[in-house]
Design goal:
Helix 3 crosses helix 13 and helix 13 packs across helix 14. The protein is mostly helical. The longest helix is centred in the N-terminal third of the chain and has 30 residues. It has 26 helices and eight strands. It folds into two domains: 357 residues, no CATH class; 227 residues, Rossmann fold (3-Layer(aba) Sandwich). Strand 1 and strand 2 form a beta hairpin. Strands 3-5-4-6-7-8 form a six-stranded mixed beta sheet, sandwiched between helices. A two-stranded antiparallel sheet has the order 1-2.
Length: 605
C-alpha cells in the first residue's frame, strides 16, 4: 500500500489522547477513546497486509513488529516493581505479567475489575488493548477466508459484534469493554473500508473537508461527550455511542483523508512523528506513570501531585520511548527463529516473575506478610463472574448448595458490604440448615420494579426471613424505599444487620504506616454517630436490629487480630477474617428469625 501520512497523524493524535487521559487531564475525560482509533486503524492495515493463504508469514511479521518491545516492557515492569513496591502490589504485577505473556491481559483484567476502577495496582493495565488486538490477529486469517467464501459473512459478523456489544453494556459493561468478540466490529469496520472504499489502501475520491470534519467530530466527542465507562447504558456507557462516533469518524478519515496543509504543516509533522513512535509511547507510558506515582496500598494512582513530578514523568516516557523504539521496535530482535522466540519470551517472563516474587518478599516478617494478605482474604465477588452473562435477567442467586429445597430460606440483601460478609453468613446459615439467597445487584430496594421482582421471587422461594446489610451512606435510601413495609405486608420477617465501623483511609495502609511504631493501633470509626442515629430511627419503627459495632469496638476499636491480620481490605469492607468475627452476631440473627418463624409458621431451625 502507498504511504498514508494521515494514518500516522491519527496514530499520533490517538496516543496523545491516551497518554493525557492516563495523566488525569480532566479536559480529556474521554481520552481512552484513542484506543478505539487504534482498533479501526489496525483492522484497516490488516486487510491490506494479510495475503490470503499465507497466515504463518502474516503471524511472523506481526510478531517481529510487536513482540520485542512488548516483552521488554512486561519484563522491565515486573523487575522495576520488585524494588519499588510491597509484596501485595508486586503479586498483582506478577499476575499481570503472566497474563500479558500469553496475550490475555484483557481476560485477566476482566476477571479482576472494570478498566475504570483504580482500586488495584495495575501498571500493565494498558496491555488489555494489545491482548485484544493480538487475539484479533490470530482470528483474522479465518475471517478473510470466510469473507472470500461468502461476501455477506464479514458484514454479518460486524453487525452481530456491534449489537452484542451494545446489548452486553446493559448487562456487564466490563465484558463489553474487555472481550474481543464484542470489539471486533471496530476492527472490521477498518477492514471493510480497506476492501470496499479504497484501492489497496489508497484514497479513491479525496474529500479532505469530510476527513477534517470527521477529525473535529472525533475530538469533540472525546472532550465533550459525557461518556462513563462504568455505566450499564449503551448511550452514556462504553463502548457505546461515543465509541461508535469515534469509530465511524476514523473510518471516514481513512476513506477521504486530510487537507495537504494539515499533513505538510508543522502540526502535521509533529503528529506524524508521534505516530511513528506511537507503539513505543503507548507501551512505556503507563507503567512509568503508575510506578512513579506509587504509594503503598493506594491502588493505581495517575494524577501527578506537582508540575515537577509531571515533567519528570514526561521525560522518562521520552527516554524509554527512544530506547524501546530504537532497540526493540526497530532493532530487528525478532529475526530468524520465528515462533521459538515467543516461547523464549514467555519463559523469560515466567522466570522473572518467579524470581522477582521471591526477591520481593525475603526480608519481611510473617506479621508484615499478614498485612499484605488482607487483599487476598476475600471471598468470590457477588454471585460469581459469569452470573451476569449466563443469567442476565436473574435478580437473586443461591449461595448454598446441597441442601433440600424444603429447607428454610433466607434472603440477604445489600450492597458491597453485604457481599463482604456473605461467606460468613452462609457458614452460619448452613449450621442451622438454612438456604441463603443473595441479590445480584444493589438496585432492588431502590426502584419499584426491582422491589416488586425481589418480593415476588421471595414468595416463590418461600423465604421466611430477609436480612438487610448496607454501607452507612446507603442505609437511609434503602430504608425509605418502602421495601420493608411491602415485605411485612406479605408476612415476611425483616431484620437489619447494622453497618460495620468504617475508617477514613485504607486499614492495611494505616496498619503499615503504624507498624514501625510498634504500638497498639485503635483508630476511631467515622460512622459511629450516623449508625447510632439510624439504629434509633429504625428501632422506633419496630424493625429488629443487630449491631455490629460491639464486635469491633468496646472501649476502643480493633482493626486487626493479634497476628496483625487486618479486619478490612480497604477503609470499610471486611476481610474474611473480619467477617468471621461477626459469626456470633449472625448466629443470634439467624436464631431470632428461626424462632419467629417457628412461632408463626411452625418452622424449626
Amino acid at each position: 500500500m502507498e504511504y498514508r501520512q494521515d494514518i500516522q497523524i491519527m496514530r499520533g493524535i490517538a496516543v496523545l489522547l491516551v497518554v493525557l487521559f492516563h495523566m488525569d487531564l480532566r479536559l480529556l475525560g474521554g481520552g481512552f477513546l484513542g484506543v478505539d482509533v487504534f482498533f479501526v486503524i489496525s483492522g484497516f492495515l490488516m486487510a491490506l497486509l494479510y495475503k490470503r493463504g499465507n497466515a504463518i508469514e502474516f503471524y511472523l511479521r506481526r510478531a517481529r513488529r510487536l513482540l520485542p518491545a512488548y516483552f521488554f516492557v512486561v519484563i522491565a515492569t515486573v523487575l522495576a516493581s520488585t524494588w519499588l513496591t510491597l509484596p501485595y502490589e508486586h503479586d498483582q504485577v506478577v499476575r499481570q505479567g503472566v497474563f500479558a505473556s500469553f496475550f490475555a491481559s484483557n481476560i485477566g483484567y476482566w476477571m479482576q475489575n472494570s478498566y475504570f476502577s483504580k482500586v488495584e495496582f495495575n501498571p500493565l493495565l494498558h496491555l488489555w488493548s494489545l491482548g485484544l488486538e493480538i487475539q484479533f490477529y490470530l482470528l483474522f486469517p479465518f475471517l478473510v477466508w470466510l469473507h472470500f467464501r461468502n461476501k455477506v459473512a464479514l458484514f454479518a459478523i460486524f453487525l452481530g459484534s456491534l449489537l452484542g456489544c451494545l446489548a452486553l453494556i446493559g448487562i456487564s459493561p466490563k465484558t463489553a469493554f474487555f472481550m474481543m468478540p464484542l470489539r471486533v466490529w471496530q476492527f472490521l469496520l477498518g477492514s471493510l473500508v480497506a476492501y470496499y472504499l479504497t484501492e489497496g489502501g489508497a484514497i479513491v475520491a479525496p474529500r479532505p473537508t469530510v476527513g477534517l470534519t470527521a477529525l473535529l467530530l472525533l475530538i469533540s466527542t472525546v472532550m465533550f461527550f459525557p461518556v462513563n465507562g462504568t455505566l450499564a447504558n449503551p448511550i452514556w456507557g462504553h463502548p457505546g455511542v461515543a465509541a461508535m462516533v469515534v469509530t465511524v469518524a476514523m473510518a471516514l478519515i481513512l476513506c477521504f483523508g486530510f487537507p495537504k496543509w494539515l499533513e505538510l504543516g508543522l502540526l502535521g509533522r509533529i503528529l506524524k512523528r508521534l505516530g511513528d513512535w506511537s507503539y513505543s509511547i503507548y507501551l512505556v507510558h503507563f507503567p512509568i506513570i503508575v510506578l512513579m506515582l506509587y504509594q503503598p496500598f493506594s491502588g493505581t494512582l495517575m494524577s501527578p501531585t506537582s508540575i515537577s513530578q509531571a515533567i519528570s514523568i514526561v521525560l522518562l516516557i521520552l527516554v524509554f520511548t527512544a530506547l524501546s523504539y530504537s532497540i526493540f521496535e526497530r532493532g530487528g530482535y525478532w529475526a530468524g527463529q520465528g515462533f521459538l522466540r515467543v516461547v523464549y519470551a514467555i519463559a523469560a517472563v515466567t522466570m522473572v516473575a518467579l524470581v522477582s516474587a521471591h526477591l520481593n518478599r525475603w526480608n519481611y516478617t510473617e506479621q508484615q506478610k499478614n498485612v499484605f494478605a488482607a487483599f487476598f482474604d476475600r471471598g468470590p465477588a457477588r454471585c460469581g463472574k459469569l452470573m451476569r452473562i449466563f443469567s442476565p435477567q436473574a435478580v437473586v442467586c443461591e449461595l448454598t448448595s446441597g441442601l433440600s429445597e424444603d429447607a428454610p430460606a433466607l434472603l440477604l440483601i445489600g450492597d458491597s458490604h453485604s457481599d463482604s460478609i456473605k461467606t460468613t453468613f452462609v457458614d452460619v446459615a448452613r449450621q442451622h440448615g438454612c438456604r441463603v439467597f443473595f441479590t445480584v445487584s444493589n438496585s432492588p430496594l431502590i426502584g419499584k420494579p426491582g422491589r416488586d421482582k425481589v418480593l415476588a421471587i421471595s414468595q416463590k422461594l418461600d423465604v421466611y426471613g430477609i436480612v438487610l446489610h448496607y454501607a452507612t451512606h446507603n442505609v437511609d435510601r434503602a430504608y425509605s424505599s418502602g421495601f420493608i413495609d411491602q415485605a411485612r405486608d406479605l408476612g415476611m420477617q425483616v431484620v437489619w444487620l447494622l453497618p460495620v465501623p468504617i475508617y477514613g483511609d485504607s486499614v492495611p495502609k494505616m496498619i503499615w504506616n503504624k507498624f514501625s511504631e510498634n504500638t497498639n493501633f485503635h483508630p476511631f470509626p467515622q460512622n459511629a454517630q450516623a449508625v447510632q442515629a439510624f439504629k434509633e430511627t429504625i428501632m422506633l419503627a419496630g424493625i429488629k436490629t443487630f449491631d455490629t459495632f460491639p464486635t469491633f469496638c468496646s472501649d476502643q476499636c480493633d482493626v486487626m487480630d493479634d497476628s496483625m491480620r487486618p479486619f478490612y481490605f480497604d477503609d470499610s469492607h471486611l476481610t474474611l477474617t473480619g467477617a468471621e468475627r461477626l459469626s456470633p452476631v449472625i448466629t443470634d440473627l439467624v436464631k431470632w428469625l428461626s424462632d419467629q418463624s417457628e412461632r408463626e409458621y411452625g418452622i424449626a431451625d
